[in-house]
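Module 6 notes. Inverse folding takes a fixed backbone as the condition and produces residue identities as the prediction. Think of it as a translation problem where the source language is geometry and the target language is the twenty amino acids. Below is one complete input and output pair. Work through it position by position during the lab.
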């Protein structure tokens, strides 16, 4: 594999970009001491699937108890419970979990663009600026004094204050708007349910200018996810290309060209890893998958023609072979075991099957089950 020699000067063999990213994201290599360190490195973890999303920081962290391959789900839950990380809508119109100290920075960088993109749907649901503003005021007041409200309790507060029809999709948009306007954020879960807390009571003060915020976000993105393209970053963070490019130029990031695409990075090309296949079972919205919408050709496994990948995966969660998507998986916990169903777009060699079994066994241990039922299926050539 060639090493970059200055700006715009390398040829990377197939799969090398994905392997580099796996090191940058710390899916491979030295693990973090705690899940909080992993959250701080990644900056934001996409989390619309609440329970599976906890696997993303856990996999990048050293075990916190005997018998586990990486950090336990309890150690991630503890961070959410005490507000060290916040699950909220930021960067894009979906859930993310972010370190509490980074939330104001991320909102400063992306809030205006996300609100613009939400405007059409808001109008479709009859939510004008007055209604949204009133809803935000009500939610900020209802959560003040350390009150953490479930979605149902938030709806009751809105209805009691005269906000019309705070239910279903209208309620979701009212809550999202209040999150983006720094009125509310996630609170301590109650009975297994998401709650909403007062933003200023839970998030440290510290306003930041938008250009400074975008620059900080760019540094975090390319440090933790490089090599990646400008459009990877703009789509991940919902930014204007001009604003993102100005931030990248200001940071003086390293560049390389792969084909017709220019990639930026802050972490150097890692040393070659040990020979042999590596299989990782990651949640469906892991950052190895969701961070690269522009350079997605490096996300899918290079050994399989793009036409072989289905439009919709068999299961939600994803199997990575040497850092690239090659299939999907589903886990069904039982009393003493976990059923792990796998499906791949191609058959595996004996060495790849062995690596897949090792990856599945790490998943079994994370679920805390002594036994595993493993189902292996693949698309016929």
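Target side of the pair, the amino acids:
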């Amino acid at each position: 594999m060639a090493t970059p020699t200055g700006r715009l000067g390398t040829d990377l063999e197939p799969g090398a970009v994905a392997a580099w990213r796996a090191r940058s994201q710390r899916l491979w290599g030295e693990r973090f001491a705690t899940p909080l360190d992993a959250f701080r490195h990644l900056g934001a973890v996409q989390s619309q699937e609440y329970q599976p999303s906890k696997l993303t920081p856990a996999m990048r962290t050293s075990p916190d108890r005997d018998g586990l391959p990486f950090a336990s789900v309890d150690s991630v839950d503890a961070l959410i419970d005490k507000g060290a990380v916040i699950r909220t809508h930021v960067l894009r119109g979906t859930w993310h979990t972010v370190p509490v100290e980074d939330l104001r920075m991320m909102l400063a960088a992306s809030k205006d663009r996300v609100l613009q993109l939400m405007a059409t749907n808001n109008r479709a649901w009859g939510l004008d600026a007055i209604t949204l503003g009133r809803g935000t005021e009500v939610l900020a007041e209802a959560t003040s004094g350390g009150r953490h409200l479930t979605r149902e309790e938030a709806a009751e507060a809105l209805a009691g204050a005269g906000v019309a029809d705070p239910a279903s999709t209208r309620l979701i948009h009212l809550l999202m708007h209040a999150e983006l306007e720094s009125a509310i954020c996630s609170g301590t879960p109650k009975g297994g349910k998401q709650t909403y807390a007062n933003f200023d009571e839970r998030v440290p003060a510290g306003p930041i200018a938008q250009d400074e915020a975008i620059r900080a976000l760019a540094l975090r993105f390319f440090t933790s996810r490089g090599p990646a393209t400008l459009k990877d970053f703009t789509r991940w963070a919902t930014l204007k290309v001009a604003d993102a490019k100005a931030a990248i130029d200001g940071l003086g990031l390293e560049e390389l060209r792969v084909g017709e695409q220019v990639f930026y990075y802050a972490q150097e090309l890692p040393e070659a890893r040990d020979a042999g296949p590596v299989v990782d079972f990651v949640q469906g919205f892991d950052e190895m998958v969701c961070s690269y919408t522009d350079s997605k050709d490096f996300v899918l496994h290079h050994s399989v023609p793009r036409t072989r990948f289905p439009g919709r995966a068999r299961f939600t969660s994803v199997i990575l072979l040497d850092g690239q998507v090659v299939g999907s998986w589903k886990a069904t916990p039982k009393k003493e075991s976990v059923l792990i169903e796998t499906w791949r777009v191609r058959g595996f060699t004996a060495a790849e099957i062995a690596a897949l079994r090792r990856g599945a066994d790490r998943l079994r241990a994370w679920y805390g089950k002594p036994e595993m039922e493993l189902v292996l299926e693949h698309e016929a050539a």
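Reference fact for the lab report: The chain has 15 helices and 13 strands.
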